[in-house]
């Protein structure tokens, strides 16, 4: 059994910088036509200079693969002139509440004070990508943020708001209430719950933000993905950390899934008899939400065993050492 | 400010064997008059020979401290003759559902099939200590086990049933419904929630079973402890693992708290204006529940800064490197 995916897109990706960028970026570039690249570097991507340099570094890291980094800007109180000038360079602006995840110290501390900037984004037709978590109890953070999504969806009806890496049934339900809300969901949140991380021995390699939730949350996410909900897009949130930052007293949040996304998605969708909907989930939905033109890249997967490597450089991948039922057998672009 | 605690008791303790026993046992023996010693070794404590040898190994490890190990037997389908013969050697029998925690592979797989043994315990006046977790989703395991406690509390009204290391508001509520139910609670479950383990960076040293729960659960546990609920006893569940088993891909469950229990309990109770109830929580309640005679050991704590060591041998303790407001300043026995 085979499936050919056209222009597969990863709508939420962390590529890092320097040596880590060079280690991980080629794996995304092999399997995906393009990816939305997160701007939470140190310092964050907040200027044309930084953005251009980062795009060039990504280009150098992924050569000779055909791969388009869809750049994002770290949300700050930008002027209209700044946003107008940057508009053609970015796919969207990413909002991080201050301190909620890796390198978000410069994020937004007052979620209502940011609204003039959101109004500018709406006027300029620039999508808003949001890490939607409160500062509350770790299991409640996404649920506590949903009223903010509702408020913005109502106040900015022409603004495309992407709820990034959703993890709860409540967020899935919200998708159907506002036509200007879209969402990304990761591979790992379709596969694991908190039980996989902490139900037996603790597995730091499954520790991520937002944290994996309850079985009923995973079920709601999976159902929406398998149904190819038109505003639910695949975004890996692949977020590598070196092994010494994972198997440590203070383990960094993030799952490195880039090399295993398409094989595991094929296995998951095939297992549920939904292989015919994978194209929508990994590409078509995102093209429609963002108004993207599909890129000329085709990835063919075949049902055959593939053992995931234990390491990619100093990074332990999702599903390390396990065998997936599907493998990428051809890439044409 | 000072407090003198008479016959402090740790009603749930893991002392391990071999080198680890020799590393950790003296810290319990310094601060506690006695402790209930868990039997989940490899192989478990299921015979007089094993029990006697273990008690002797503990005695050798804690010398010259005055310390009484209150031994427990790992629950299996024992005969009346066996239990009668062992009765004078043990404080109770510990039930582990099969596979729910460290070294519980030989535990009970059928919770109703075990009831004839519970009837024997009731007839012989031997308390039943229970690791009360189901095999369900990690956050629901204790809640799912509560109906089993209810069933047994009703069917065996003369059996003292101790709900070990309770972590939920539901378990606290159950205490008031059945006079033959008692419970232990750990120091760390009075102090932390899942947020402390996984809300920021992941801290494997706070990973334990049962896993720390929600803020409202901690609040209910703390309220009952500070009120010196007469059937709530202190049990540290101090459970050491070497650092290489904690900061690892498969991190073992357990918090090593033995050396810090009394200082942190004094700080906690003093902070909440409940220092006068600490004696009941760390000794008197347990004496009443189990019919124990207090042992002639007095531990004096004073309000003064004490920095917790980073390591005890190869074990990272609870509160490692942090400063506690209280310190043990004298031990008399």
Describe the structure.
The structure is a homodimer of 333-residue chains. The first copy, chain A, is built from twelve helices and eleven strands. Chain A is of the alpha/beta class. Chain A has one domain (9-291): Metal-dependent hydrolases (TIM Barrel, Alpha-Beta Barrel). The first copy, chain A, has an eight-stranded parallel beta sheet with strand order 2-3-4-5-6-7-8-9. In chain A, helix 5 links the parallel strand 6 (128-130) and strand 7. The longest helix of chain A has 15 residues, at 48-62. Chain A binds chain B through residues 137-139, 193-195, 198-205, 207, 211, 214-215, 247-253, 316, and chain B through 137-139, 193-195, 198-205, 207, 211, 214-215, 246-253, 316.
State the share of residues found in helices of chain A, binned by percent: 25-40%
Count structural domains of chain A.
1
Briefly note the CATH topology name of chain A: TIM Barrel
- Nearest-integer average pLDDT of chain A: 96
Secondary structure category of chain A: alpha/beta
Tally of alpha and pi helices of chain A: 12
Beta-strand percent range of chain A = 15-25%
Task: Give the CA-based shape of chain A.
Answer: globular
CATH hierarchy: architecture of chain A: Alpha-Beta Barrel
* Largest interface, C-beta within 8 A: A-B, 26 and 27 residues
Separation, N- and C-terminal Cα atoms of chain A: 22 Å
Count of distinct strands of chain A: 11
How many whole angstroms does the radius of gyration of chain A measure? Answer: 18 Å
**Looking at this structure, what is the CATH superfamily of chain A?**
Metal-dependent hydrolases
What oligomerization state is this entry in?
Answer: homodimer
Order of helices and strands of chain A: EEHEHEHEHEHEHEHHHEHHHEE
Stretches with pLDDT under 50, minimum 5 residues of chain A = none
């Amino acid at each position: 059994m085979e499936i050919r995916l056209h222009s597969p897109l990863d709508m939420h990706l962390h590529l890092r910088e320097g040596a880590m960028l060079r280690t991980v970026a080629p794996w995304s570039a092999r399997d995906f036509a393009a990816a939305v690249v997160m701007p939470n570097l140190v310092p964050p991507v907040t200027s044309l200079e930084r953005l251009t340099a980062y795009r060039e570094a990504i280009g150098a890291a992924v050569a000779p693969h055909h791969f388009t980094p869809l750049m994002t800007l770290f949300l700050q109180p930008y002027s209209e002139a700044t946003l107008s000038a940057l508009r053609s360079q970015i796919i969207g602006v990413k909002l991080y509440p201050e301190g909620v995840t890796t390198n978000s110290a410069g994020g937004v501390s007052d979620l209502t004070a940011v609204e003039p900037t959101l109004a500018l984004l709406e006027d300029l037709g620039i999508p808003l990508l949001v890490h939607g978590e409160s500062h509350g109890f770790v299991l409640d953070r996404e649920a506590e943020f949903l009223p903010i999504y509702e408020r913005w969806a109502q106040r900015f009806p022409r603004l495309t708001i992407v709820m990034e890496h959703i993890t709860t049934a409540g967020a899935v339900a919200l998708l159907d209430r506002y036509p200007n809300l879209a969402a990304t969901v990761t591979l790992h949140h379709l596969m694991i719950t908190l039980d996989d991380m902490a139900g037996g021995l603790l597995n730091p390699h499954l520790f991520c933000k937002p944290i994996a939730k309850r079985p009923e949350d995973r079920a709601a996410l999976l159902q929406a993905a398998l149904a190819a909900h038109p505003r639910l897009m695949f975004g890996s949130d692949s977020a590598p950390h070196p092994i010494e930052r994972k198997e440590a007293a203070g383990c960094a949040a993030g799952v490195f899934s880039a090399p295993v996304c398409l094989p595991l998605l094929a296995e998951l969708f095939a297992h549920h008899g939904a292989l015919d909907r994978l194209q929508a989930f990994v590409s078509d939905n995102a093209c429609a939400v963002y108004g993207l033109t599909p890129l000329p890249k085709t990835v063919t997967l075949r049902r055959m065993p593939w053992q995931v490597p234990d390491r990619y450089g100093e990074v332990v991948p999702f599903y390390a050492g396990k065998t997936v039922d599907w493998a990428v057998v051809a890439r044409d672009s």
